[in-house]
Write a structure and sequence with these properties.
The chain has helices at 19-22, 64-69, 88-102, 149-168, 186-191, 199-211, 215-224, 236-241, 247-275, 331-336, 346-361, 385-395, 419-436, 512-519, and strands spanning 6-10, 42-44, 72-74, 76-77, 109-112, 135-136, 139-140, 175-178, 280-283, 321-322, 370-372, 402-404, 442-444, 473-480, 485-492, 505-506, 522-528, 535-541, 544-546, 557-562. The protein is of the alpha/beta class and 565 residues long. Strand 2 (42-44), helix 2 and strand 3 form a beta-alpha-beta unit.
Length: 565
Amino acid sequence: MKRSLLIIATVGCCWTDVASLSDGVGPATAACSDAKKHVFRAPAWSPYDNPGDAHRGWPATSCPVCRTNKNILPLAPAAVSDRLSFNLTESVLNAINITTSLHPEGEYTLLARFEGKLAKDPNDDILPLNQSVCLSKGVPMRFSGPYWDSSVARARERWQAFLGRYHELGGVVDELVMDTEQGVSTWEISCNGWPWQTPACAELLWDSIASNPGFDKIYKELSRFGVTKNASDPHWLSTAMKNCMGHPAAVWNAVMGNVTAALYTDMAVEPLRQYFPHARVNQYGYYSYDPRYCVLDPGGYTACSIPTHNGTIVGTQQTLALYNTFPGNGALLIHDRGYRNYSRNAFNTVKYDMNRARMLAANGYPFKPWLANHNFSVDTRDNDYYQETVLHAALMGAQDLLFFNPYCPACGPGGATPSADNILFSEILNELTDVVGCNRRTWLPVAPARVVSAPNNSAVDNTTFGGDWDDEYFLTGMHLPDARATVYRFTPNTTATHPTPSSYIVSASSNSDEAHTNASSNLVLRIPSPRAPGFVTITFPAGKVYTPPTPVSKAGLWIVVPDTS
């Protein structure tokens, strides 16, 4: 069996009509029997049906399409609490009711958050009792740094009680989604700009961490990566971390990722295994990567500068947020690789997310990314590049998706998910099921296009699995062996001269008859390259454009290439 895709640099000439390449072409998944079909679904942060709040002026939301498609699954909250009014049995029964009534068999999914339990136990506090430089609303704040022993023990006890009752009452957990957004990175300690993070407070926090008896174990890991004490500076750790983007900060974040992953595992994953040993587990923001393909997170805190570190996974799946957030500090690494003109626009914002997703897909571990609602990002709110993000993420082999659809109208445009956004996401999942919904499916890494005539080609860093930072398109392929075909999604940066994706389809000859003869056997794309002279030309042998009955996006093309023996 042979699958081939030819990407070369050339100078093409003639356009051909996309209609001649798509007439009569059906979805490749038509060859997959019902037993081999896969339905794309997404556990969702909020229910798609909300009653609204007339007192606050919050509108109600409804999504009949979601109920019909059965592909958005409101997460069942696994609520634990220390409040005297908390009713454990009531919490457990609520979770059981949501999973059994709204989740298909094999996909009973709980959402667990532990912010109220971590780093809150007074026994873990490391700040002096009489300190007055770290104040929150005028009150001395509590701080435990990376020392959570008592807090984790308390959270684990509450979680075990929930799981024991849940199991006793017949509940099932196929997947646990953890969204405990609490850690001890440099951002959380001294770099996020919160009012209490004054220079004096930051110094006290770092000094308190370094003077704790538990720091010896942490220091061994820091020194292994080259961060060592300065004997002449009593505030050496604070000094090292002042540059939030420097190598010492990257080392700290890498080491703390390992530390907090171990704490989460002890607190939540191990108790779960006692009752549901085969459940899938993921924790927001924890993932692995090959350092060669490392892409900084939007804040620039990923430890890309450490060649021996490859991230950390909690549970069985890696996950990250693909929220169409322009990288900000994360663009620094892109600039360091020679791409000084990585400016902010919708296409570049989405391309950044695509390269981050490829960073995870390339390591071979299962991954399940979070996707936000359509209104979340100002860069993709008014165009179809949002849909392209979801489509490409799924084609990279994601084990379905997680949908962040908050219902918080007071939180700004991105925080109030309207009914239309839930409907759109449901329709995107439907299209994925239609186009690549086979159980057996494999991400097919596409070699980055190279322009051989570029004068400094050998110096261009090519580490992003599917396109350089200045390529004007991205292309993702997925092989469906039961359909004997490979399906590609092509998304270009449309311009005034190329207003639609189909306008990049060209012939291989200037002769009109030869052009249409070629079009009947091969599909050829030609994309202008910023590394001129020349164009990137991509040839899909026997490729055909597939257009769904009601496409969710006009910003890309589906291209189906049959297997050849």
